[in-house]
Design brief:
By secondary structure, the chain is an alpha+beta fold. The chain is 54% helix and 16% strand. A 5-stranded mixed β-sheet has the order 5-6-7-9-8, covered by helices on one side. A 4-stranded antiparallel β-sheet has the order 1-4-3-2. α1 runs antiparallel to α3, α6 crosses α8 and α8 packs across α9.
Amino acid sequence: MKSKASLKFRILAALVLIVSVTSFLFAGGVLLIKSQLEARVFGDMVAEQLRVLTAQLDDGTYHENTLFTGWEFHIGEKSTNIAPEFAELEPGSHHTVSMGGSVYQVEVGEWNGSPVYLTYDITEWEAQEHAVLRMLLYGLFLVLIVAIVMGLSATRAILAPVQNLSRRLTDIEPGQTGLRIADDYVGTEIGQIASSFDKYQERLEKFVERERSFTAAASHELRTPLTVMMGALDVLSADTHSPASQRALERINRACTEMLAFIEATLLLSREESSQIYQDSPIDLVALIDQCLEDYADQIADNSVLIERNYVGSPQLFLPVNLVQITISNLLRNAIEHTHGGNIRIHLRDKEFSVSDTGEGIPADKLSQVFERSYSSKVGGTGLGLNIVRRICDRLHWTITLDSTLGHGTIVTVIFQQKERDGSTSL
């Protein structure tokens, strides 16, 4: 699982971790050195004193009053008050031996075959050591707090150029071209990012320009012959008396009309999001739906489909008719093509349009793909129909949902965001 922590958090965590680990290692090293040094100093001191005392025993000059405060000297075989904690010790030096709430440095030796014990009370030293340890621990927490505060300050300083670049990129308007920012960051670490952005921006501008040139050229080259064809169809329709020929001409005219609408819709979608596409007068949506149904009358009859209309209201859509026509006609055509001997119900309300059918339905594992450009349930289909419907809905901020059950049918719902005359929008 990839980490989603921000760069600021990672920098702060790294600084705090480095300072904390370094401080704890230093403190641990100091404590270890102190402990080793203390054991060595006390051990040597008590061992030397035991050597002096045993020498005094040898020459008969030993006297208990010669011991300093805190020192005790015991001979194992002659003494009955040797503490069990001392009696169990092996010969040698023993640091921090606890007994009865006190701490001792103990040296165990031998004199004339009997064990001898010299103890030195280091309780006060140990208490001071613990006090130092507490102070050191408090210091470590203080260092941690200081590290966090300094880390926050450092991250702000480190990320300031990145944030400045981010604001600079955010302020770039979609229509701005030829803008380059690398020169503003020469000699800084951000300069490499800015340079890469400039190269990407240059490639993107060339790509957009190629797309615009192609769209403009293609739309011009396609619309011109379509207009000529539709004009010729009008002439032929006026002189044609055969019903079969008339129906054929009507199909050709309808196909040309749909193709022209598709081209116009594609051009509108290719404009920037901020481009004005709204109109002053609303569309007669009821008439548009009825016109689409009339255009598909032959296919409806061939599939033995029963159309049910439920017009409760009509949304006020101040939009180019081609955009709305492409959306309505694609949804109706899909329902008609996949319904044989069933029903199609069309619901129209003030803010909603829906088409439900009792047709083939869509497998559950394919529902997420129906709006993709490459997906089509028809053999040889391109999948462009529903894809352009989704693009139109996204552009106009409409909500489109599709629910389907294999073998039981499909329902598609579009919820409109309406444009008012004053330019405001409402759901």
